[in-house]
From TrEMBL:
Annotated region described as Disordered, given as residue ranges: 234-272
Protein name: Protein kinase domain-containing protein
Recorded coiled-coil stretches: none
Superkingdom of source: Bacteria
One MF annotation (Gene Ontology) recorded for this entry: ATP binding
Domain (Protein kinase) ranges: 1-462
Amino acid sequence: MRLRQGLLPRCPTCGQELLTRVDLDAHPGLQCTACKYVLPANRVMDRVQELSSATARTCCQDKAVEGKGTIINFVHRDVIVMEHLTLGLKDFARRRREEVMDQWKKKGGETTALVLASKPGWLERIGALLPKKWLHRRTSELFEKALLLEKVLAVVQLVEGVAWLHGEKRIIHKDLAADNIMVRFSGVRNGKSNWRGEHRPEMNVSDILNDITGYPTFRTLLIDFGLADESTPTRSWYDDDEATGQNKGPFLSPEAKNRRQDVGLDQPLGFSPEEKTFVIPPEMRGLSLPLMPGDLISHSLDEEHVHDLKIEAVLDGGKVAKYSGVAPEVQDYRRCIVERPLLEPHDIFALGALFYFLLSEDITRMEPLHALVYTAQEKRRPIDGGALRGLDLYPGVRKAIRSAFWQDELIVIILRAMTRGLPGSYAKTRIDRGCEAAQRFLLEIKRLHHKIQRDIVSTFWR
């Protein structure tokens, strides 16, 4: 244990700067000369946090600690923190379905007509005469709507987090995928615990539904900000084969899947150094993603990247590009690489895909969704229910959503997040900057959340 003069920590027990080295029986250590606190060297690894923790005080009379952020203990009692459980996005949907259905079964799959408490008693008597199968189906539908409401709320929280990143922090996450979304529960509902009173005999199905609808006990968390930054367009992660595999690929935007494209040219690029422009060759005009401001062009023979060019504007109907940077003097470059930035619309696209994944609970269903997005984009269809229903892929994508309710509204929101520049799309282009797209997404999904919530709590017969 090496101690440098002037860097000795405070004693975690008394707060004094009186820790000194001592030679104990078997190991050296640190000891406080005031209160005799001892930290042997062989316990440093598992007790080192003691040296960086705030000093605890047993009363508030000591004026010396005022304004120092010192923790003040008014009573000598252990702090007990409510248990938390953190799950992945797919496990969240499965677990909540199991828990909610378990609660319903413990009530005997209650099928009596549940009438709002404010309604007259004669309505309740009429409800008792309704067919039992009808009542069972009606109650089952309400539970399905409640589970859907929780999924929508989870995505509301995600979109809210991304809107904050884009608007407040000017940060692009760039790696939104199911693996990077966690759901944390406060006070675990595990089917055995009854501390909330879920299994009390007087708690009926109406109480369970009101609890699910009005008192969420989870919070979605964005994790893994290793790729996040404000504007840097390049990350080697997107060149990895694993990035386009089953775990990441379904959530990648077109510009992420095609972030780097190697383009062969029949003729070398003809630069105009005075005007800083060049005519965009047919090979570049025919790319799946046309050149846009912010794209980078590098040349395969320019190993030092001294002639990397940044596209500043696309002119003359997509025929001419204005660039910044130093164009190469040698005019025989026949191969170049186009690199595309990943900006805010990339995150919005991923959120739409995540929403569909949560609704379908099946990552193998993502490919038809991407095909539907591509078709809508190619046909320039407005993103609304009427226009989308005419597409061949629409029925299959719709059917994959587990809930039978609000399917059209859900798909419209998802496709508005995953398309660009169409009537209804949240983003105009793949290079939009700012938080407007996230704000539009957030507004619409909140409206749907409130709509589902109102439907559940205002249903007359339960």
